[in-house]
């Protein structure tokens, strides 16, 4: 290699190393909402949306404390032991990643501890084993995703008892919100400094397809407001469904063989800008007796459009039949089906009881843990959790279709005409 090429190569290496070192200069990269608040605060909560950069802010805050010798004994607490290690320690924004190689702590997985050259030590804990916080004492702590913890108040109590070293022991909490009583109580504590932020504040570091999908699929739905905009979504007083109830239905879902599968329609009788949606829900009955919500195809469209949507789902899912409410639409659904596809098995259902009376047994099935949601259905779940019997002027079409579907599958004895291909009445 010539001297000229060698010098050029060395210059490039120097520039690359400078660039690498600059990437560790957090104060030049951090947004104001990712930097520790001013003053002698004791507890700082970063309540922010997914992808905001909470983990990076938590790791960098601990790095700052340790560098300036503000903390020497620290606790790291995640929901599980694996999450503490994989997110807070070894993750792409974790403690190992944010330190320059020369300052990086030594991590001992067998001891669940990190050791810094200046003598600082951090110990990893699982929220599920909060009793392990008895005995140790700390001058600093980082708690990640506190709102997910099953026994958050018990974890917090044990941490507060152990956070007793130094002149100003501090804790940072990084979490996406959930409407838990403990989190809401903590947010109103005058000793707590709260920073809030949305996913979109960090858009320059997030993939464009991710942001587009989040906006189009979740937007201002309750889950979007919670997971993207970090709002603490309260349950609607008097609603037959609650957020925890619906989340449980989604989290407990298991893919099981189905013994029945239907498409339920709550038809809109008019089509215009102010018309109601047509509720279209795909639901099944698993062999173990669980009701499963598989798809929400509800839409605002003309009858010819929504009936073809239902027929397409009927064939795609190989459904047993289409069930439709006929109180408002009369024979509309049957006429449309005879026009577009006479092979569809169809059953008309008529409401002989009020909406509340029909909905209450279905909400009871959720309370008994007998219904699963195969995935997240933002608009449907918002409608479920905002429906208060006797209140509201808008028609909960998705809810109505769900109620018809689960009533047919779980509260009505199957008739011989439920066999696919038979035109039911």
Residues in β-strands, percent: 15-25%
As a percent range, the share of helical residues equals 25-40%
Number of helices: 15
Sheet with the most strands: spatial strand order: 3-4-5-2-6-7-1-8
Number of domain units: 2
Unreliable residue stretches:
14-19, 417-425
Output the radius of gyration.
28 Å
Structural class: alpha/beta
The major beta sheet can be summarized as: 8 strands, mixed
CA(first)-CA(last) distance: 88 Å
Compute the average pLDDT. Answer: 87
CATH topology of the largest domain, what is it called?
Answer: Rossmann fold
CATH superfamily of the largest domain: P-loop containing nucleotide triphosphate hydrolases
- The count of β-strands is 14
Second-tier CATH architecture of the largest domain: 3-Layer(aba) Sandwich
What is the 3D form? elongated
| Order of H and E elements | HHEHEHHEEEEHEHEHHHEEEHEHEHEHH
CATH level-1 class of the largest domain: Alpha Beta
Task: Summarize this entry quickly.
It is built from 15 helices and 14 strands.
Would you kindly provide a written description of the structure presented here, covering whatever features stand out?
It is a single chain. This protein has 425 residues and is α/β, with parallel strands linked by helices. It folds into two domains: 21-227, Rossmann fold, CATH 3.40.50.300; 243-418, 2-Layer Sandwich (Nucleotidyltransferase, domain 5), CATH 3.30.420.240. The chain is 36% helix and 18% strand. It is built from 15 helices and 14 strands. The protein has helices at 3-23, 26-29, 54-67, 81-89, 95-98, 152-162, 181-187, 208-217, 222-227, 243-251, 303-316, 332-340, 355-367, 378-386, 397-411, and strands at 43-48, 73-78, 106-108, 113-115, 121-126, 140-144, 170-175, 192-197, 258-266, 279-286, 291-296, 321-325, 346-349, 371-373. The strands form two sheets. It has an eight-stranded mixed β-sheet with strand order 3-4-5-2-6-7-1-8, with helices on one face. Helix 11 crosses helix 12 (332-340). The radius of gyration is 28 Å and the shape is elongated. Mean pLDDT is 87; it is low at 14-19 and 417-425.
